[in-house]
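Predict fold of MerR family transcriptional regulator; 134 aa.
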Amino acid sequence: MSSEHMQIGEVATRTELSLRTIRHYEETGLVIPSARSQGGFRLYTEADIARLMVIRRMKPLGFTLDEMRALLEATDRLDSDEELPPEEREELLERIRGFDQAARQRVEDLRTQLSRAEEFAATLAVRLARIPAP
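Predicted 3D structure, encoded as tokens:
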């Protein structure tokens, strides 16, 4: 096994994803191990870890597997060494800009939810502080 390849356990540790989750992302085609060992074990590279980290970061923002796939396909295409026609390149960039805008909106929505949750917790703390101890 090459030092640049990692088995799934190391990938799970580095990405803080479970083995089951990584296998699920493989089954759905979001990430494909770069190689297999002679014994058939999945082998991953730094690029595979980077891909898993994109997925991990999209998940709490509520992106679907199909949306994750669409973003990854767009970035893969832009990152390829192939010369893209200008209109295709612009379409891919526009798709990524859409994901950027959606992510920013979802982050803002989560900040609003967190603020409301903190207000609620503070209200409970004040209420409990007013109750005399027995």
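The chain has one domain: 6-130.
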